[in-house]
Amino acid sequence: MKQVRESVPRVAVVLPHSAGGIFRLFEHFRRQGPNEGRSDFRFVVTKEDRPTSLLWFFPRLLAFCLNVLLRQFDVCHLNVSADGSTLRKTLFAVPCVLTGVPYTIHLHSGRYPAFYRNLPAPLRNIVRAFFRRAARVIVLGQVWRDFVVEVIGVDPARVVILPNAVHGPDAVPNRDAPERVPQILFLGRLGPGKGIPELVEALARDDMRSLSWRAVLAGDGQVAETQAAVAAAGLDDRVEVPGWVGPEAVETLLAASDILVLPSHVENLPLSMLEGMGYGLCPVVTPVGAVPDVIRDGENGFLVPVDDAAALAGALARVVSDGDLRDRLAAQARADFEVSYDIRHYREKLEAVYLDVLAASGQRSAR
């Protein structure tokens, strides 16, 4: 009979150290400490944004293996994206399988179907086994549940839909200043994958030029190219491209903006969209990944086709020119955020997954 453990579950969270959303999400929990919830998070960083990162990977993997063998963890939470992330996390799953420590997979990449399809057959078999052995596979929306069940072959009973969550202000910033010019905000990696070329084209169309607005396109990636495209379109006086901005600057931009635009070609569930909803912005986004699970066209935002500058300009023009429509969509987006995407409710949902895994494996925990 398996031993029943009466303590706070110790969860090894395996993730990269980066500016990405998943690191920001778990960094919030790291700062909280174990007393804020029903789990004690132990963080294992597999990759950093520096040239020497690879040199530290195998020492960290060996240290992780030792900790698993010594039963320092009760559950392992493997954050998985496409490309090298999957291959690294399969190595971290091996000691878990050998010792019987359950692991969860948290799938984040919007590019995962293409990555999986393009793998050589032997590697695809390894990835399939990696997913099927997981105690739970956490996905961000229905489209990703369908993918892991129908394509990878994960048992549907082991798949959990848990959308991302972000910080939001206690109250929506006041935007009732007289003669206010609506501000459009983009947050993300600048480049074709996020729809920046068609966004610049949309802002330059006649139906947008005839209206009063300003825009900020903030993020890393193709900053110089985006600045050049804005200049070539004659939008220098309306569109600012500051490049990457830190967390405090992001909050300032969110508080000062009215519309969150994200015309991505590929997404899983973008955090910038949820952040915009939390700040009471009106979303204008493309229906990619799990976005349609969140945005209902005409109710809490607008959905526009991918790579369609005319449709994007039309949607932006509607919410720029009609303040009542913009406010109605934004208010519903904020209401949905408070119910489903506020990080203050996320930890409890995530920890329920761990407790379920422990119960299924013959363990349980109590504070």
The gross shape turns out to be elongated
Helix content: 40-55%
Counting DSSP E segments of at least 2 residues, the number of strands comes to 12
Lateral strand order in the biggest sheet: 2-1-3-4-5-6
For the biggest sheet, the summary is:
6 strands, parallel
How far the N terminus sits from the C terminus, by CA atoms, comes to: 23 Å
Q: What is the C-alpha radius of gyration, as a whole number of Å? A: 22 Å
The H-and-E topology, N to C, reads as EHEHEHEHHEHEEHHEHEHEHEHEHHH
Helix count equals: 15
Contiguous uncertain segments of 5+ residues: 1-6
CATH superfamily placement of the largest domain = Glycogen Phosphorylase B
Q: Mind telling me the CATH class of the largest domain?
A: Alpha Beta
> What is the CATH architecture term of the largest domain?
3-Layer(aba) Sandwich
Number of domains: 2
Structural class of the helix and strand makeup?
A: alpha/beta
Whole-number mean pLDDT: 90
Describe the structure.
The chain has 15 helices and twelve strands. It is α/β, with parallel strands linked by helices and 367 residues long. The protein folds into two domains: 10-165 and 343-360, 3-Layer(aba) Sandwich (Rossmann fold); 183-340, Rossmann fold (3-Layer(aba) Sandwich), CATH 3.40.50. A six-stranded parallel β-sheet has the order 2-1-3-4-5-6, sandwiched between helices. The protein has a six-stranded parallel β-sheet with strand order 9-8-7-10-11-12, sandwiched between helices. Strand 3, helix 3 (84-99) and strand 4 (103-107) form a beta-alpha-beta unit. The chain is elongated. Residues 1-6 have low confidence and may be disordered.
